[in-house]
Amino acid sequence: MSTVNSKDVARLANVSQSTVSLVFSGRYHGRVSDKTREKILSVAKELGYHPNINAQVLRSGNSKTIAFIVPDIQQPYFAKVVHAAEIFATKSGYSLILLDSYANKQWHEHLISLFQSKLISGGIIYSCDKKNIELLRYYREKLIFIESDDEKNNDICLEVKKAIESIFYIASKMKRFRVGSFRIDLPRQHFLTRHELFDQQFNSLENPEKSKHIVYSSFNLAQSTENAEILLQQKPNIVFCDDDILAGAIYRAAKHLNIHIPNDVAVIGFNDTDLCSYLNPELSTVQIPTQYIGEIAIKMLLEKISNNPQIIEKQFVTLKVVTRGSTQA
C-alpha cells in the first residue's frame, strides 16, 4: 500500500498542495479560510495523513517547538503558568518542551543543545540569573525572560513592589507592626527580589514599636511546620509568606501552638493557589494572573521569531492583593 502524501489530501479536498502545506505548517492565518482549513484537516484524518515533521523542520528551519524553563515545576504556581502557555501554544500550532532549572542544574547547556540541533524555535525562561543570561546571549532574539535578575533583559516584569506596598498598608491598617517574614530558602531570583523589597518597605515604616522576624524554610511539610513554629514563637502579629504553601505551614503551627488566626496573628500568602480556599479561615494572598503570564509569554515569543518581527515592548503585570479571613480580625 502506497504512503498517503499531501498531494492526495489536496486532490480529495479540491485545493492546491501549497494550501495543504500552509495548513500543516501553521502559516494559514489570513491566507486560508476556516472552512477550507477544516475540510483539509477532515480529509487528512480520513486518509490517515500525518505530515513529516523532520522534513518540515529542514525546509522551514522552524521546529514548531518551544522550550519553557521554570525553577520548580512541582510548585502549583509554575504548573499553572506552564499549563496556560501550553494551551495557547497548541492553539498557535506549537508544542512545549519543559525544563526544570532547579532539578537540572545544567539546564542552560541542554537549552543551547536544543537550539544548535534546531529542535526548538525559541524559549521562555522564568527567573534567570545574570550568569545564565550572559551564557545565552547568542540566542537572546529567540528568548523571553520572566522575572530575571537583569532588569535590562526582563521581558515580563511582575509589579511585586506595588503588591508589597499593599500588604504593608494592610498591616498598618490593622495596626500590626511585629512583622514576620516566612521565606523560602531557594536561591531563586524572584524570591530574592521579594525579600529585598520586603526589607525596604519594612525599613520605611515609621512606627517605634515595629519589629521584624525572619525565618527560612524549604517546602517540605515537616520542616516548614517546624520552622513556622520557630517563627510564631517570636510572637509576630502578622506574617508575610513567600508562597501559599508556606502559609499553610503557618496554619499547622498555629494550631499546634494554640494561636488564633487572625486574632493573634494575621497571615498573607503569595500566588493565590487553590490551597487558599481550603484553609480555615481562607487565606489572604497576592494574586498573580498565571493564565495571562503564560499566554503573553508565548505571544511575545512567537512575535519575536516570526518572519516579520516587531519591537517587543516590555510587559508589566499587575498583581492584586486578595483579602480573606486570615486578615479580617
UniProtKB/TrEMBL annotation:
One function term, GO molecular function aspect: transcription cis-regulatory region binding
Keyword Transmembrane helix carried by entry: no
Sorted UniProt keywords: DNA-binding, Transcription, Transcription regulation
Domain spans labelled HTH lacI-type: 4-60
Pfam families: LacI, Peripla_BP_3
Matches recorded under PROSITE patterns: HTH_LACI_2 (PS50932)
Protein name: LacI family transcriptional regulator
